[in-house]
Amino acid sequence: MILVLDVGNTNTEVGAFVGDKLIASWRFMTKTPRTSDEYAVTFKGFFQTDELDPKEVESIIVASVVPDVMHSMINGMKKVFGKTPMEVGPGIKTGMPILMNDPTEVGADRIVDAVAAYNIYGGPVLVLDFGTATTYDYVDAKGALVAGVMTPGIQISANALFANAAKLPSIAIRKPKTIMAKDTETNMQAGLVYGYIGQVSYIIDKMCEKIGERVKVVATGGYGRMFLDEVDSIDYFDPKLTLKGLKIIHDKNIVTRRKK
Predict the structure, then answer these.
(1) Which pTM value belongs to this model?
(2) Residue 229 annotated as catalytic
(3) Of 51, 185, 202, 227, which shows the fewest CB atoms inside 10 Å?
């Protein structure tokens, strides 16, 4: 069994693979302060819920954009699984050239998504991740990560709206029945959702214009499903794309180590 972890700014998603099959996945909030013992209890609880044996975990791989939680989390994993995870970062084999000005600035999650999209769907491909931030990453036909765009996620946009306007309420993010909204809540929902649909469509169109052709577009992330039916240029929604990418990168590194 291979354990993969995507440690994001808002949530951490954990997946367990046997072979190439994802047999279980779980989520917990990243920013909740935890000791290594608390992480250990969390991991044990996940495995007990799905009747899995922690002793069957052969190796672990982690992609994290939240460095300050990693010390306790890694120690928690060691207590339960007896393994030190490999981490996506400098020195790990991804099989993907990063043609940015400074490759070290590119988040591990974006690299993992790009690797997954290229290996599963082929290139050229545009990868969208609707998370805390929304990221757009272009992978060319040769499998290189060439360029990207990053915007505030829709939840951040909503938080900014009601946090900075005293009379505006916190609202659920959902598409109202019509853009011709008639009360404060649906006014806000219309602006957020329709505005975000417009933003996503425009960025995809402009990136494809610069690329010089219409490329495949793959979306993932918490709000990705919301936009699948709203943005015609999104071809696929893969909610487990990051977990799949982590497994792909894990396997590339295990094969490399065995060859050595």
Answers:
(1) 0.92
(2) no
(3) 51
